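So, could you explain the following?
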Amino acid sequence: MPNIHLTLIGKPGCHLCDDARAVVTSVMQNVVEERPAPQIVLEELSILDDAALQALYVEDIPVLLINGKVHNYWRIDPVRLRTALLEAS
């Protein structure tokens, strides 16, 4: 099975981004404990390091992508994320 690639787009000092990171890592850990394959990989990107990301998402951070597609922005719902990860695995 292919890996699930999560991309969390935010910026330093963003409290919503910190909250999103906490939710994503917690849900990832729970899903991996329940269903260890496929591997879930989390990449974090900052809009401050990429002008294209900033142009796309400056008003929407944090943004969570699952395998390159927008899953959610602003606040990450743990139940919805868990469901999406289980469906993708």
User: Anything to note?
Assistant: The first helix runs from residue 15 to 34. The radius of gyration is 13 Å. The mean pLDDT is 93.
